[in-house]
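Lab meeting, item 3. Inverse folding demo.
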């Protein structure tokens, strides 16, 4: 630091260096003061030497100067200064105030201080001249951000001038006024200036008595000014706080506020502070009643305060009355601290009233106040439930505390506490502090009420005198043992802790903490890992068959054989009543459980054969790893009452449906451990003429074909049972087979958890204890697990343990569902214990006849929900003999509907409305017999598109009957539940979905015998691309999500069939495989892609033409996206070929696709309107023409690129043919390939692997630019490929076969003028189009055994000499091989390969050509025999 005692020699050196530039700048016009220019030459003589250096710094625009401070308080000399690197402090005596004016004028004259940011004035008495200089300084130095006045004196005129300067300034950020006596008037002037100022961010007024009126003026400024970020006021009157903070809160200002005051003893105290960073408002000082009420009113609509802390502030009931409205209207306040605020009963009642409507407050602290039991009763009322059906008024408050040494909770307060703790569903922290009114018995009752509270986590009774004695200790321990949710109990400063008895409680809590940490280490995959497993004890037998196949009679006979009844007379009597029951009972899925002599449980599931129940079969299908077998039953007769036998085709059709159904559902299994076990049973065998010799030969042959067809998909039992279900002897062999197969299956399937077997017995006992109830609520299941199953019990007092236990319970419930003991889905809120009872309910729902009801909408298929509930009650309450307990007593109709909604068995018209009408797809009518037509009027500008999704293996799988109803529900929920519906409409029929969305009419039809494909058809004035995008984004994903286990293949439906809605049986052949259509486009030359046509065959019926033959352009069948994909695929193939041929890339010009706006609006019926419409149409036609021109231009560029690559390909192949004319003068052909014979067809070999057998060597005709396969060529047989052969031939196979496959992929064999350059391999290359080798480096991935993969990767780094050596090795191998085959002469080669050795007349090169070229090109070649 430098001061006035600085070394004078050093000072003079600095002075001399700066003086010249200072004088020059000032004299040349830097200063705007003429008097200063005039007197500059005499500055060193007239200005005190002590201030010459500061004057020069101020006038010379020192770049590093950031802060200047002026102090008018120098006692001894006239002036002094202090300087640092970035600041300057000038001390001037009051008697030399003129010097300060000169410095201020100099600073005002020089506006070049770009780095000056802070100016401070201390003990300055301002006059008009100085204030004008200050205003000039602020105007000419926009870099000044901070202005400070400490202990200054302002006249009213100066304050007015200062406020005007602040009003117009747009750069200053901070103003501080401290001990300057600005008063109320000064505050008003500055407030008026800040109303218009939009740059100031911080304003501080310290120890200036602005008074209440000044605070009001500043409050008005806050209401207008939104840029102020910090306000600090220190005033002797604490009342200034209320208007300031109220204005900030009422306007939701994100402004930091600090208000200070001082008392009579000059002790400084903080009144309040608001920190927007953490949204906290703290009040430290007692406010008067009006100020407190004003503060409360300002918070009613405030959104910036999250936490209000008024602890220690004395509050009155009047304030509480105002704050009640804050609790009712404010939606952001989360925490409220009113501890030690002297609140009495009346004030607490007001706060309690506000809690009834409050839905945001989470924490409320009311401890150490003066209210008693009456107030406690009111406070806890909104947090309590007084009956099971009553809802808790306030469910957001999580923490509440009260109590105090002067508070008397009393009997009323205790009763309210017990009521709240018993039924509360939200409070997790509850505290009673320093209470002296509660006795030990009252504390015991509090802990007893906590035994059933599942929500509370922390309880605090710190300082309560009643927490003492063994009874309280015992109650605490019992509560901790029975309630697993309590995490902490605070008993600090209680007699129980003082006596040391609370240590046992802490040990229990610490043990629970360790349990929680161990539980957190567990992962979701370890939920049931540590449980013991055992072999399953239950196996399911599914009886599958059509209606009247005799499944019910067979089920009774099998059960009687496996587990004979000890009361045969009663069984006979029951059988006599069966026809009576069957007359009144509707068909449904029946379940019968029996046990054999080894105590193996066999459950026979009789799947109903009625078609209306088929949609329920999917829900009952066994899960993965479930022990089950299937008996497919078919009657040998068409009807039970006659003797007309079924044909072999009818029997095959019956069996084939169930086989495909079982296979399709088995693919759903996540882990298919074993193939489904199938046994075929033919009933009513007693009616067959025994003299005929058993089953007809046609039936036996048909069954054998079924076995061969489905072999590998299911496991057939080799014997077909023919039985008479009414004869015990006839069924005995089948019963023995069922019993034996069940035992075998139980040994082969995966083991199950022992826990599941234990739960089966526990659930059985529970049913007996609850009057044989068929279903239990999930909450009841949780309570049962908590009491009866230790492994499924919640052991920790933390949320993580609860989640783990919940996951375990659901995992066990799912396991019970998979093994067939219960019916449970994650979407259900119940556990079905009686499976037959639940199936009966769903069966009745599917058979409800509601189409004739008034509340049924025939157009849309929706029915009123309330009316549907009435129908359910009337249908399910009928007591039919044998049905069991009343359904409504165990499952409410509303719960049945919710279950159906979750299982996607029905859907709501408006998912957001709980009373919305319902749609049940299973009860819809089949409308396929109606005349089918589009809802939209057909016109020339309407486009039609169609796609078919067909089972990839339709001969073995199908779309199960439950699939399409779920698809109808799923699509409805996606479309109608979307926020952006575009005015969509949705209607259904039995096998049809009609959708109109965004101007596109869509039909989704289920088709095919047994339902193995879905047609998606659409028509619209929009283009095919937009319609197909709707398919790809909405409809096809919904279909695939419901049958992800079945592979679906996409086909293109002929547009004419879509337009005319041709019946499905006729449009079966009018579909084109989408991928094959794309591959067809890839196989044609580039110029033919745009005009490629797909032809359609004719369709006839009984000699009549239904659909005429025709064609469609591929560009019309595909969307723009698909067509672009084909072009990009062709570009990709050409790029790969270019990389292989090492052809340099060209910068092809981009072809931006131009698109025009749609013609919108309508044509006015005037000449001008018609002209305008014609102009718009012509403009649109130009746009379409330009788009077509762009596509054709892109194809033209593709053709050019392809042509260049084909020329380069020709050079490469020609090099391979003539790479070395010195190899024994080409005594053998150069271009050879291998084929292998498989299933009466030849397959081209693209890679050599050691160990191959039975290959044949063939040669190509090598005539330049016209190479081809020689027809009828015999070739030579290669018995086995060894490592030496692979080593010699691998490089040759790689280079030649790679070029060949690339040529095939880009359609080079069809290129104009070069069609014979690449050999037409015929059947040998037909398989190669779809071969994976085509998409790699000629099958390099398959050559790992011979090390060819490494050779492929090194190909580009090899030198031409290395390549020549590789080809020389291959040629030598061919020569040696032919010599071993005794085919080394020209005559032998001509006999086996049909090739002759010739020489070109122009260049003398040798080649081996076919007989045709020998004669056709005789003028270009001459024979050169060996």
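The presenter then showed the designed sequence:
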């Amino acid at each position: 630091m430098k001061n006035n005692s600085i070394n004078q020699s050093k000072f003079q050196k600095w002075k001399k260096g700066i003086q010249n530039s200072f004088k020059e700048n000032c004299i040349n016009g830097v200063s705007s003061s003429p008097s200063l220019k005039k007197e500059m030459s005499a500055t060193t003589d007239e200005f005190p030497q002590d201030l010459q250096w500061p004057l020069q710094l101020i006038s010379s625009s020192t770049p590093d100067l950031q802060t200047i401070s002026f102090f008018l308080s120098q006692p001894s000399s006239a002036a002094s200064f202090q300087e640092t690197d970035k600041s300057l402090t000038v001390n001037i005596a009051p008697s030399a105030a003129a010097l300060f004016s000169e410095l201020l004028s100099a600073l005002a004259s020089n506006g070049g201080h770009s780095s000056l940011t802070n100016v401070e004035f201390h003990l300055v008495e301002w006059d008009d001249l100085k204030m004008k200089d200050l205003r000039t300084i602020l105007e000419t130095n926009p870099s000044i951000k901070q202005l400070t006045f400490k202990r200054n004196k302002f006249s009213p005129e100066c304050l007015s001038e200062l406020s005007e300067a602040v009003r117009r300034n747009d750069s200053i950020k901070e103003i501080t006024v401290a001990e300057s006596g600005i008063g109320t008037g000064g505050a008003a002037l500055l407030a008026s200036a800040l109303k218009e100022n939009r740059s100031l961010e911080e304003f501080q007024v310290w120890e200036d008595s602005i008074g209440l009126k000044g605070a009001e003026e500043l409050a008005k400024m806050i209401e207008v000014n939104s840029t102020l970020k910090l306000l600090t006021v220190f005033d002797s009157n604490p009342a200034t706080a209320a208007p300031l903070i109220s204005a900030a809160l009422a306007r939701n200002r994100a402004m930091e506020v600090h208000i200070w005051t001082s008392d009579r003893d000059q002790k400084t105290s903080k009144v309040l502070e608001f920190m927007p960073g953490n949204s906290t408002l703290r009040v430290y000082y007692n406010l008067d009643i009006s100020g407190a009420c004003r503060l409360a009113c300002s918070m009613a609509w405030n959104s910036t305060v999250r936490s209000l802390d008024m602890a220690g502030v004395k509050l009155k009931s009047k304030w509480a009355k105002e704050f009640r409205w804050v609790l009712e209207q404010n939606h952001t306040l989360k925490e409220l601290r009113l501890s030690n605020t002297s609140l009495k009963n009346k004030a607490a009642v007001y706060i309690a009233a506000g809690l009834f409507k409050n839905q945001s407050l989470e924490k409320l602290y009311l401890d150490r106040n003066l209210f008693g039991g009456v107030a406690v009763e009111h406070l806890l009322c909104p947090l309590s439930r007084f009956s099971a059906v009553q809802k808790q008024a306030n469910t957001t408050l999580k923490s509440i505390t009260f109590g105090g040494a002067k508070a008397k909770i009393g009997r009323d307060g205790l009763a309210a506490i017990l009521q709240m703790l018993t039924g509360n569903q939200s409070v997790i922290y509850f505290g009673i502090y320093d209470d002296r009114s509660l006795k030990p018995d009252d504390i015991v009752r509090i802990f007893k009420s906590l035994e059933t509270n599942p929500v509370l986590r922390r309880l605090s009774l710190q300082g309560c005198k009643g927490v003492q004695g063994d009874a309280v200790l015992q109650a605490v321990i019992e509560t901790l043992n029975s309630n697993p949710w309590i995490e902490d109990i605070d008993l600090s400063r209680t007699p129980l802790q003082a006596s040391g008895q609370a240590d046992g409680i802490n040990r229990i809590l610490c043990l629970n903490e360790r349990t929680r940490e161990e539980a957190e280490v567990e992962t979701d995959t370890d939920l049931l890992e540590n449980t013991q497993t055992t072999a399953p004890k239950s196996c399911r037998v599914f009886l599958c068959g059509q209606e009247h196949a005799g499944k019910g009679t067979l089920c009774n006979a099998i059960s009687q054989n496996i587990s004979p009844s000890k009361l045969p007379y009663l069984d006979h009597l029951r059988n006599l009543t069966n026809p009576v029951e069957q007359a009144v009972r509707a068909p449904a899925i029946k379940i019968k459980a029996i046990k054999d002599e080894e105590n193996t449980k066999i459950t026979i599931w009789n799947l109903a054969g009625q078609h209306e129940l088929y949609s329920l079969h999917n829900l009952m299908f066994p899960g993965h790893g479930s022990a089950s077998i299937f008996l497919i039953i078919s009657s040998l007769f068409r009807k039970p009452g006659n003797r007309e036998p079924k044909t072999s085709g009818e029997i095959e059709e019956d069996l084939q449906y169930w086989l495909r159904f079982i296979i399709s559902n088995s693919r759903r299994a996540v882990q298919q451990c074993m193939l489904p076990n199938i046994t075929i049973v033919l009933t009513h065998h007693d009616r067959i003429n025994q003299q005929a010799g058993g089953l007809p030969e046609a039936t036996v042959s048909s069954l054998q074909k079924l076995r061969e067809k489905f072999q590998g998909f299911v496991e057939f039992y080799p014997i077909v049972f023919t039985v008479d279900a009414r004869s015990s002897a006839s069924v005995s062999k089948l019963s023995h087979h069922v019993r034996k197969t069940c035992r075998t299956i139980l040994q082969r399937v995966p083991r199950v958890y022992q826990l599941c077997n234990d739960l089966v017995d526990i659930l059985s006992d529970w049913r007996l204890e609850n009057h044989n109830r068929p279903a239990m609520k999930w909450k009841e299941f949780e309570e049962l697990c908590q009491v009866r199953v230790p492994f499924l019990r919640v052991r920790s007092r933390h949320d993580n343990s609860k989640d783990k236990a919940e996951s375990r319970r659901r995992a066990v419930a799912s396991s019970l569902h998979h093994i067939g003991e219960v019916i449970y889905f994650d979407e259900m809120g119940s556990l079905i214990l009686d499976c037959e009872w639940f199936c009966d309910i769903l069966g009745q729902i599917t058979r409800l006849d509601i189409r004739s009801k008034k509340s049924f909408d025939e157009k849309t298929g929706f029915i009123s929900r309330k009316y549907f509930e009435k129908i359910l009650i009337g249908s399910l309450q009928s007591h039919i003999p044998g049905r069991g307990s009343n359904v409504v007593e165990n499952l409410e109709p509303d719960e049945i509907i919710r279950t159906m909604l979750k299982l996607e068995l029905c859907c709501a018209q408006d998912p957001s409305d709980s009373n919305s009408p319902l749609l049940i797809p299973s009860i819809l009518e089949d409308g396929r017999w109606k005349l089918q037509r589009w809802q939209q009027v057909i016109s020339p500008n309407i486009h039609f598109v169609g796609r078919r999704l067909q089972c990839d293996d339709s001969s073995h799988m199908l779309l199960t009957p439950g699939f399409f109803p779920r698809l109808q529900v799923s699509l409805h929920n996606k479309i109608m539940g979307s926020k952006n519906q575009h005015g969509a409409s949705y209607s259904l029929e039995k096998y049809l979905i009609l959708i109109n969305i965004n101007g596109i009419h869509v039909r989704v039809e289920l088709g095919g015998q047994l339902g193995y494909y879905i047609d998606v058809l659409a028509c619209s004035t929009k283009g095919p691309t937009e319609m197909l995008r709707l398919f790809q984004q909405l409809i096809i994903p919904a279909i695939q999500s419901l049958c992800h286990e079945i592979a679906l293949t996409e086909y293109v439906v002929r547009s004419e069939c879509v337009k005319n809605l041709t019946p499905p049986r006729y449009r079966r052949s009018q579909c084109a495989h989408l991928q094959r259509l794309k591959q067809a486009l890839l196989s044609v030359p580039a110029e033919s892609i745009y005009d490629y046509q797909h032809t359609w065959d004719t369709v006839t019926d009984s000699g009549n033409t239904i659909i005429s033959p025709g064609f469609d352009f591929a560009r019309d069948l595909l969307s723009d996206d698909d067509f672009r994909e084909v072009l990009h695929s062709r570009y990709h193939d050409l790029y790969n070929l270019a990389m292989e041929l090492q052809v340099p890339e060209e910068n092809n010009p981009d072809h931006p696709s131009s698109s025009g706006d749609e013609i919108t609006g309508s044509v006015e019926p005037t000449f001008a309107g018609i002209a305008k419409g014609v102009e718009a149409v012509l403009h649109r036609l130009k746009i379409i023409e330009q788009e077509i021109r762009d596509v054709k231009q892109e194809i033209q560029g593709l053709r050019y690129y392809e042509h260049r690559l084909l020329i380069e390909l020709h050079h490469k192949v020609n090099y391979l043919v003539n790479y070395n004319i010195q190899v024994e003068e080409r005594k053998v052909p150069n271009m050879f390939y291998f084929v292998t014979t498989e299933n009466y067809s030849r397959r081209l070999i693209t890679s050599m692997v050691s160990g191959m057998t039975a290959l044949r060597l063939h040669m190509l005709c090598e005539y330049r630019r016209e190479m081809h396969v020689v027809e009828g060529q015999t070739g030579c047989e290669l018995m086995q490929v060894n490592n030496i052969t692979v080593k010699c031939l691998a490089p040759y196979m790689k280079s030649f076969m790679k070029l060949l496959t690339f040529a095939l992929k880009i359609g080079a064999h069809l290129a104009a003028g070069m069609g014979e350059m690449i050999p037409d391999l015929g059947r040998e290359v037909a398989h190669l189009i779809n071969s994976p080798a085509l998409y790699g480096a000629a099958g390099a991935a398959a050559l790992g055994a011979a090390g060819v993969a490494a050779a492929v990767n090194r190909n580009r780094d090899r030198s031409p000499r290395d390549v020549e050596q590789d080809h020389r090795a291959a040629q030598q191998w061919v020569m040696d091989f032919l010599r071993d085959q005794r085919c080394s002469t020209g005559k032998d080669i001509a006999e086996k390969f049909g090739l002759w050795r010739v020489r070109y007349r122009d260049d003398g090169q040798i080649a081996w050509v076919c007989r045709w070229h020998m004669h056709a090109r005789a003028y270009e070649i001459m024979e050169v025999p060996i």
